[in-house]
Amino acid sequence: MTNPPPLAGRRCAHPVNLLHATLYFSSDLDAEFRGLGVEDTSAIRLAARSAPLGAVGAGTVAATFYNYEHGFLARHLPAVWETASPGAVLDARLRAADATYRRLLGDEAVASAEMAEAAELALRAAEACTRHARPLYAGNADLPVPDAPHLRLWHATTLLREHRGDGHVTALLSAGLDPVEALASHTATGRGMAPRWVLGTRGWGREDWDAAVARLTARGLLDAEGELTEAGAALRESLEAETDRLDAAPYEHLGAEGTARLTELAKGFLVTAAGAGAFPAGLTGRA
């Protein structure tokens, strides 16, 4: 087994992460949680992602999610657990993942040999993930692996996404980027969330965003038009390179051939999901 070539892990992680993320834009998630009595869309998404950690409060979620405003979190956590226990939430999110994949990909794809192959490749990659200093990965790694192939794939994409995300938080801290600076500099690449989505989902105000942009400009990372400078682009690339380094083990474990195949399969499913409306218009970009 040969190691993947440079950037192969990053290229695989991108569609894997987005397949995981389809759940958080899904109407099926809303429907399942409203059946539990949770109506607020922010509370739904915060509970769905944090449930593997238990009935945690705003402080724990601010630490692990990194880029959410603490006061915003405190409006929903820990109060949501009085309505729905973490166990009930975990059951609901798995039902929502089932409905989401069936709706976006179709029953034929869900039952396909390619789905089963993708699930086993992703689970094999996740065998090399590590728990230390990776709280969101560790919480999900303690959950049972589902039986159905499409749910095995969603579970595996969750493990791989949170493992990479936990490492990315370490890289952000090392780079000296606070939560809003991290968001604003990512948006400036053109690949991050558009500001209106950030402000609507992370709890920060326009004044927080403008202050972060001013700090980044003072550091020479953004220019007067809010574009990344050469130094800013180099910093963002160094962040991704450090995240790649911290996230290399799963893809090295899978090997070059397995990583290439998982990338191919994940991309195929992602194209189908995106074509079926998995993500809202205007989600990414600078405006």
Features of the shown structure:
globular, 16 helices
What is the topological layout?
Blueprint: H1 8-21, H2 27-36, H3 41-50, H4 58-65, H5 70-74, H6 80-83, H7 86-105, H8 107-110, H9 113-126, H10 135-141, H11 149-175, H12 179-188, H13 195-202, H14 206-218, H15 230-246, H16 248-275
Helix pairs in contact: 1-11, 1-16, 2-7, 9-11, 9-16, 10-11, 11-15, 12-14
H/E element sequence: HHHHHHHHHHHHHHHH
Main sheet characteristics: none
SS-based structural class? mainly alpha
Note the total helix count.
16
Mean pLDDT: 97
Beta-strand content estimate: under 5%
Shape: globular
Strands, count = 0
Amount of helix: 55-70%
Poorly predicted residue ranges: none
Distance between the termini: 44 Å
Radius of gyration, in angstroms, nearest whole number: 19 Å
Description:
The protein is mostly helical. It is 69% helix and 0% strand. The protein is built from 16 helices and no strands. The model has no long low-confidence stretch (mean pLDDT 97).
Quick description:
The protein is an all-alpha fold and 287 residues long. It is built from 16 helices and no strands.
